[in-house]
TrEMBL record:
Pfam families on file: NTP_transf_2, OAS1_C
Organism: Vombatus ursinus (Common wombat)
Protein name according to UniProt: 2'-5' oligoadenylate synthase
PROSITE patterns: 25A_SYNTH_1, 25A_SYNTH_3
Transmembrane segments: none
UniProt-listed InterPro entries: 2-5-oligoAdlate_synth_1_dom2/C (IPR018952), 2-5OAS_N_CS (IPR043518), NT_2-5OAS_ClassI-CCAase (IPR006116), NT_sf (IPR043519), Polymerase_NTP_transf_dom (IPR002934)
GO cellular component: cytosol; membrane; nucleoplasm
2'-5'-oligoadenylate synthetase domain segment(s): 161-217
Entry keyword set: RNA-binding
Ranges of residues in domain Polymerase nucleotidyl transferase: 39-103
GO biological process: defense response to virus; negative regulation of viral genome replication
Family named by the database record: Belongs to the 2-5A synthase family.
GO MF annotation, one: double-stranded RNA binding
Domain of life: Eukaryota
């Protein structure tokens, strides 16, 4: 049983993060192999007999940003498609696209290329297709969120900023907060990746802390705060 965060003094947090929160190479390799399976599927199997084309598949979420927690085998993939000509298209047509991706995944399952178990969405117009992937090439299952998206940024070079018109169009298409955040996955990912390792470790720590706080525990905030002073040396 790992040391509880609230029992860890502040001067020992780096060690706590390294021992208990930071994923090891085996974990990262597992997620990477799973991502390769689904990326290949998206590019080679999806929309083969359709005018819709997969423009690019971008890995997002914590595993792409370098802030994943140990023990959480999950991955986010954003699929940019030619059928979305604007933000409004994405909002209107994404349910149909998600249904098509699911149908193709089920076809691959019948061919025993891999196995998938879908999460039932409670939304009439879901933004994401969630499923669990198992395969002979993987030691453990991996949870996926696949999000169809409008290619608002185009081919954005590293270090360059999007055209301001992109944001004008976004504001004009505004409906619900965060609805089109998947369109900006590359900006989000690159921003976090370029930050110092110390900050990424802090993000991991906060996520771990939040998971603990959500559990039914004593309401006192002191239960979740590490000791503030190191021990005095004699």
């Amino acid at each position: 049983m790992p040391t509880l965060l609230q029992q860890t003094p502040s001067w020992d947090l780096d060690s706590f993060i390294s021992k208990f929160l930071q994923p090891n190479r085996e974990f990262l390799g597992q997620v990477s192999r799973a991502v390769d399976i689904i990326c290949s599927f998206m590019k080679e199997n999806c929309f083969r007999n359709s005018s819709t084309k997969v423009l690019k598949v971008v890995k997002g979420g914590s595993s792409a940003k370098g802030t994943a927690l140990r023990g959480r085998s999950d991955a986010d993939l954003v699929v940019f498609l030619s059928c979305f000509c604007g933000f409004a298209d994405q909002g209107t047509n994404r349910a149909e696209i998600i249904a098509e991706i699911r149908a193709q995944l089920e076809a691959c399952r019948r061919e025993k290329q891999f196995d998938v178990k879908f999460e039932i969405s409670k939304w009439e117009n879901p933004r994401v297709l969630s499923f669990t992937l198992t395969s002979k090439t993987l030691d453990h299952s991996v949870d996926f969120d696949v999000l169809p998206a409008f290619n608002a940024l185009g081919q954005l070079s590293s270090g360059t900023k999007p055209d301001t018109q992109v944001y004008i169009d976004l504001i004009n298409s505004y409906n619900n907060g965060g609805e089109f955040s998947s369109c900006f996955t590359e900006l989000q990912r690159d921003f976090v990746i370029s930050r110092p390792t110390k900050l990424k470790s802090l993000i991991r720590l906060v996520k771990h802390w939040y998971k603990q706080v959500k559990l039914p525990v004593s309401p006192s905030p002191d239960n979740f705060l590490p000791q503030s002073q190191p021990p005095t040396e004699s």
